[in-house]
Amino acid sequence: MDSRTIRLHHPDLRVYRPGAGWTHPGRLRSRWALARLGLLLAVAMALAPVIVPAPWTQNTTLALCCACVAWLVRDGALDTARYTSVCMTLLASVLVLRLGLPLVGVAGTVPAGAAASLGAAQLYLVAGIRKLGSPHFMSGRVLADNIAYGAYQARAGSPDFFRVPSPQVMAGLLEGPWFLPLLRAAAIGAALVELTLGLGALGLLPGVVVVGLAVPTHLAFLAVSPRRIVPFTVASVGLLLIAVQAPVLR
Hints:
Blueprint: H1 3-9, E1 15-17, E2 21-23, H2 29-51, H3 54-74, H4 82-100, H5 109-132, H6 135-138, H7 141-155, H8 167-175, H9 179-204, H10 207-223, H11 230-243
Antiparallel strand pairs: 1-2
Helix pairs in contact: 2-3, 3-4, 4-5, 4-11, 5-9, 5-11, 7-8, 9-10, 10-11
């Protein structure tokens, strides 16, 4: 439907939203309700170890993790953000294992570590292999596109992107002879680092090395990506922190 059809025949549909088409504000009410519930769960999980009395901390956190898994499964809108939703669901499920198994007399560290190890390895290895198999990414042009897109979106007022570089600086970088080769090297490095993190999550590298490599890598990803990937970043590092404690191959 074009804008004229909307105005003539569907006056209540005023806003176009990617993935949802022409919508009206009422359609977002259920999404807002789910988002608020997710925010409450996140805040409760962060505060539970601090404000809940010690005898109830583990059970409270376990219940919140189960609720978080149910929320992630229920929220079908996250299907468009699979890496984020899968990573968050894995992390919450691993915490359910770690906190729930001791209640039935089974130590939870090893099963939780193995599950986190396999989950993190799959995420990083698939991401690295896909990058290596993408000529467009390996050429550095995907990174150039992302940086340029973010610079112009920030200039247009989007709060989801950093305001550096400015469009003027970006234009100068794109005209320079060294910018694209530098991004090509960064693309190759990103793919290799993700493969390394995947192997490290399995237990083939010391845990300190894996975490020490993951943190600056994700910070670099944040620098050229929208801020909405922050939940993915936190969930990925959290999954790795559990994985390196009891990886599947160690």
